[in-house]
Amino acid sequence: MPQKDPCQKQACEIQKCLQANNYLESKCQAVIQELRKCCARYPKGRSLVCSGFEKEEEEKLAMKSGSK
After folding, report:
1. Is residue 2 in some structural domain?
2. What is the pLDDT of residues 42-56, one digit of tens each?
3. CA angle (14 as vertex; 18, 60 as ends), nearest 5
4. Distances in Å between the alpha carbon of 59 and those of 4, 29, 32, 38, 40?
5. Which residues of the chain have pLDDT under 50?
6. Would residue 1 count as lying in a domain?
7. CA–CA distance from 65 to each of 5, 40, 51, 57, 59 (Å)?
8. Domain membership of residue 20 as a residue range
9. What is the model's pLDDT at position 3?
10. Under a CB-based contact definition with an 8 Å cutoff, are residues 30 and 14 in contact?
11. How many domains, the chain?
12. Measured distance CA(4)–CA(19) in Å, rounded
């Protein structure tokens, strides 16, 4: 049986917040930050819902190293 995603609860909270606020991310920064904190607690690849943040971080690092 697959393991439950450790950050699934936070991801669901983001969806609820976005739906309640007409998908305005600016209204949901607190819950987005909670998901980021959750993702930071687990090794890369452990949480499927964190994969978007992981990709975002990789892109930021690639841009930084390319601008030197």
Report:
1. no
2. 888 889 999 887 777
3. 105
4. 27, 21, 19, 20, 17
5. none
6. no
7. 32, 22, 21, 12, 10
8. 8-66
9. 73
10. no
11. 1
12. 24
